[in-house]
Amino acid sequence: MLEKFSRRTFAKLAGLASLGLGTTAAKVEEAHAQAVAPKLAPGSFPSGFIWGTATSAYQVEGAVKEDGRGPSIWDTFSHQPGHIADGTSADRANDHYHLYKEDVGLIKDLGVKAYRFSIAWPRVFPEGTGTPNPRGLDFYNRLIDELLANGIEPYATLYHWDLPQALQDRVGGWQSSETSKAFADYSAYVAERITDRVKTLFTLNEVGRFLNFGYGWAIDAPGLKLPPKQLNQARHNVALAHGLSVQAIRAHGRAGTRVGPAENIAACVPAIDTPENVRAAEIATRELNAGFLDVILEGKYTEHFLEYAGANAPTFTADELKIIGERNDFVGLNIYAPQFYVEATDKVPGFSVLPFPNSFPHMNSEWLRIGPETAYWVPRLAAKVWNIDTIYITENGTSSVDQVTPDGKIYDLDRIMFLRNYLTQLQRCIAEGVPVRGYFLWSLMDNFEWIFGFEKRFGLYHVDFDTLVRKPKLSVDFYRNVVARNAVDV
């Protein structure tokens, strides 16, 4: 069901344009990529490649009313009947707030050297703005110090969907640029206090999800169905928030702090690997991401995005576009399923989106269609279209049924199959010279999976949500082996 919504949303956002890439230029770029590609043994990743795992605050922390934390839109939304499939909320979740030392031990046992987590805005500013909560960052300071003590580098995300409810009530949340400014103030406050130890900050996670599903179709918090004009304006406000956050972090963070987005890019894949279809996939990548990724990386909306939106296009100023286009130090890409298989066409915009057959395979989550080639094409196309020199795969993983067998173990062979195939395609991408520098597996452990509640399990570690006992799945052994060898079997 979610895939249906996701594809429809991005189709509505699609602009109409062609990049006009010539065959000669393509050959020159291909030769250059081959010249700079790292010399890697089969299946191997570059020396210094960053292996990590990830979670988000609302999904794992719990303790929603402790130490001065204010309510978020997800607290409100999850407590309204009918919104969460199993009728649960993340009031307790994994109780990571109290069990974080145990969880850092799980990270260390994986052998990874990086952990991506998010900071809950309503813990730091319970009202969204104004006076900060003096205990707001205490938990994150403890977590950061524990990670560093165990040789794990912290990577922090400033927004993973848990908007302070007070901002939603007061100004309509992302419908107002006041929220953009509030996010910049929050970013500045956090950057000033943690960048002595945290060198990499992600601004916003998955704009393509939380805007479309939360403000467009009432699937996610805060549960609104805005008309197209207002939805596009809200998305513009989020892009503005990103730019203002980048400015704030550079102004208030320590020298050398790096900042960029983490986005669930509209994943375009050429149906058949021909020069014409690859060019079509490049066009599609730019235009189907025109509402956020393209505007923050180019500093302007594409002509055909504005033409397609027409009277529903957002209102903006040249100064806002300059802010939105602030330089990013990297781009984080969340990669799961192919959203669009495309082929070339003579008709504007130069690509055609192909329908998925009913027999197309998927994982335990029906929206998660199996397309390992996505891990090859998406970074390759993004690096080419936007000339990106540093990419992180900030999320990749899958849900699984994860049944505990009579011997007390979880043999998640489907997850291992998924990861092996996606990592093989990612390695192929890197071996051809695409600048992917790190990979964060989603997720460290089972957690509150938004509208699915606790029904969908994405973790390497199984969690019993009654006892909160964490148990390694077979995929822990698989991932630990990949990290130790810095290679995947091919």
> Numbering strands along the chain, what is their spatial order in the largest sheet?
1-2-3-4-5-7-10-11
At CATH level 2, the architecture is: Alpha-Beta Barrel
Helical content band: 40-55%
Largest sheet: 8 strands, parallel, barrel
CATH superfamily: Glycosidases
Strand content: 5-15%
CATH topology: TIM Barrel
Structural class: alpha/beta
Mean pLDDT: 94
Q: Could you walk me through the main structural features you see in this protein, from its secondary elements to its overall organization?
A:
- The protein is of the alpha/beta class and 490 residues long.
- The chain has a single domain, classed as TIM Barrel (Alpha-Beta Barrel).
- Helix content is 42%, strand content 13%.
- The strands form three sheets. It has an eight-stranded parallel barrel with strand order 1-2-3-4-5-7-10-11, surrounded by five helices.
- Strand 10, helix 17 and strand 11 form a beta-alpha-beta unit.
- The protein is globular and about 60 Å long.
List strands and helices in order, with pairings.
Elements: H1 2-13, H2 23-36, E1 50-54, H3 57-60, H4 73-78, H5 96-110, E2 114-118, H6 121-124, H7 138-149, E3 153-159, H8 165-171, H9 177-194, E4 200-205, H10 207-216, H11 228-252, E5 258-263, E6 268-270, H12 275-287, H13 293-298, H14 303-309, H15 318-324, E7 331-334, E8 340-344, E9 351-353, H16 374-386, E10 391-396, H17 413-431, E11 436-442, E12 461-463, E13 470-472, H18 474-485
Parallel strand pairs: 1-2, 1-11, 2-3, 3-4, 4-5, 5-7, 6-8, 7-10, 10-11
Antiparallel strand pairs: 8-9, 12-13
